[in-house]
Amino acid sequence: MCGIVGVIAKSPVNQLIYDALLLLQHRGQDAAGIVTMQGTKCFMQKARGMVRDVFRTRNMRALPGNVGLGQVRYPTAGNAYSEEEAQPFYVNAPYGIVLVHNGNLTNAATLKQELFDIDRRHINTGSDTEVLINVLAHELERAARDRQLSPEEVFAAVGAVHKRIRGSYAVVALIAGHGLLAFRDPFGIRPLAFGEGVGPGGPEVMVASESVAIVGTGHTLTRDVAPGEAIFIDLEGTVHARQCAEHPSLNPCMFEYVYLARPDSVMDGVSVYQARLNLGETLAQRVISTLPPSEIDVVIPIPESSRPSAMQLAQRIGKPYREGFVKNRYVGRTFIMPGQGVRKKSVRQKLNAIEVEFKGRNVLLVDDSIVRGTTSKEIVQMARDAGAKKVYLASAAPPVRFPNVYGIDMPTSAELIAHGRSIEEIREFIGADKLIYQDVAAMKRVVAALNPKLDGFEASCFDGVYIAGEASADEVAAMAAGRKGQGDEDDGAADRGALTLQSAAELA
């Protein structure tokens, strides 16, 4: 999961992209980058760290131009500690292309070899985004050979990209001197939407991972980019759209609704907030069938994503809803932190229990999901330390039993507490008195009810069905190895990564 944004406007876009990235910061805290374009010249600033740390006043002044894109990174492939693998990525031919990507390519290793052996392109990092930009560059070169680049050639290139790559991908790319391109994989796994508005200089078009980035910067959400669709916005701001996939179907990632997205976003016609309320409704039914409500004194959410589900559950079973944990907002989300050691260490830095809500009570804790189990175990113990008589735990999502290879940080079975274990074994590990999970079929039913146009969901971590192709064992191993035990924090990261990129025309 990463957050991406692209803008074409009639006035400078550096501040607008910065503001949008702040609204998408929850989607990635490892690194951030912005590229702007003035004429055919591109300017880049990227580094490890949060948006507010990567972009200082001097950096923003060095990002002129009315066209640009940006990304906040959460590493699921490649080296989590490599600043070179922070996005955006750039290639100088053809035209000069800059690209940001949200998702994972499951056949990246095969493509990397093809690019070297057949396309004569060299990949210098372990990032699948570098693979993707080179595949796009090669197909653009083929589609527009001996012709002026037009939307027709751009759409032909995207169609060829769809045929070559597998996995999940939402992409925003700048083509120097031509415009901004956005496209989405044929299954619509990773989200992408666009909106329009009027800025200081005139009309603006924005593409972003979530509607909150569009609406929160004063634009109006137009619609989601359809699965397999490409949108090309020329430098005049005219939007050209074309379906470029042969058999598209809308199967958004269920984990977006469960955990990843902001509750105030609307994705593929589904309110994330309403989806979480619905999950709380069905979870309440599971609780009632497992545990008499009379044995529960209070319902307490584990911040943040579980709050809507916990509120709905409490209302349904007729028990008080209370805030029992205070979150330190200046510590990153533990799920996003690379490395299990860092994740485990940070739990008590991140949450603190309000003792009065626990002491002498039977508490039902509600979490959005349980992935690795280490955080849940620590939180259950915190509740006991605060004086709870009994601690029950309910998950608004079903057991996460299978690896996810489409852009969520759960690539190997060994990391998942529910893989190969019974509910009772999970309960014992976590230390709860009762453990209640959401039902897979119920989860899909109540979220799908919010938009009948959905064809289904990418829910592989719950049901083991890989709709866009499963990564090979070698590719999964490579993804896991690339993020483990590499490097240390670098306090000077935000001062590096400022690059001025010349276009292909200037280099010729």
Explain this structure.
The chain has 508 residues and is of the alpha+beta class. 31% of the residues lie in helices and 24% in strands. It has an eight-stranded antiparallel β-sheet with strand order 11-9-10-1-4-2-3-22. It has a six-stranded antiparallel β-sheet with strand order 5-6-7-8-12-13. Strand 9 (193-199) and strand 10 form a beta hairpin. The radius of gyration is 23 Å and the shape is globular. The model is unreliable at 484-508 (pLDDT under 50).
Q: Total helix count?
A: 17
Question: Looking across the biggest beta sheet, what order are the strands in?
Answer: 11-9-10-1-4-2-3-22
Largest sheet: 8 strands, antiparallel
Structural class: alpha+beta
Q: What is the straight-line distance between the termini?
A: 37 Å
The percent range for helix content is: 25-40%
So what's the overall shape? globular
Number of DSSP-assigned strands: 22
Strand content: 15-25%
pLDDT < 50 stretches? 484-508
Global Rg: 23 Å
Name the average pLDDT.
89
